Amino acid sequence: MGSLWMALECCWSLAKSRSILQEKCCSRKEISPTFVLLVLTGKLQVFVERQRRDLVLTDAGPGTILGELAVLCGIPRSASVRASENSAVLQWSAAAFRSLLLRDAFLSERIFRESLRTLIEKERSLIDSLIRSQGSSNQSA
User: Fold this and answer.
1) 3-state percent breakdown (helix, strand, coil) of the chain, nearest 5
2) Domain definitions of the chain by residue range
3) What single DSSP character describes residue 100?
4) Looking at domain 2-122, what is its CATH homologous superfamily?
């Protein structure tokens, strides 16, 4: 329990707490990744804009980390985030987040495992969608 408490203290000391009001955006697609969020309370909506409409990709609740892949890979964000209800988050700067991962192997492993699990689930969903789309176009031909 002592090492978990120390890890939590370290996480908290490197982050700043933020409140996000419902409908406010806290991260925009294609902006350089400068921070990572951990949802503490409430719900954040991850979305992309397509053909002047917002397409909701997922809802992120307490315990969800957002923006970690963009920060780790140094690539622009692929989606935007807004609060779907009043929420509280911890926000780490990109440098603080990388430092946190280097300090705590256990935390790093959990974050990487969840990030990779999410990517694999999205890949499977995309493949399933392509197969369904090809199946329906083959039937209509």
Assistant:
1) 45, 30, 25
2) 2-122
3) H
4) Jelly Rolls (2.60.120.10)
CB contact set of 37 (below 8 Å; sequence gap of 6+): 26, 27, 44, 65, 66, 67, 81, 89, 90, 91
Give ∠ CA 117-36-38 in degrees, rounded to 5: 70
Which pLDDT band holds residue 126 (cuts at 50, 70, 90)? confident
Give the integer Cα–Cα distance in Å for 43 and 111.
19
Give the tens place of pLDDT for each residue, 40-75.
999 999 999 889 899 898 999 998 999 999 999 998
pTM comes to 0.77
CA distance 103 to 97: 10
Considering the chain, what percentage of its residues have pLDDT values greater than 90? 41
Task: Report the C-alpha gap between 121 and 126 in whole angstroms.
Answer: 9
Q: For the packed helices 105-140 and 2-14, what is the interaxial angle rounded to 10 degrees?
A: 70
Q: What secondary structure letter does DSSP report for 120?
A: H
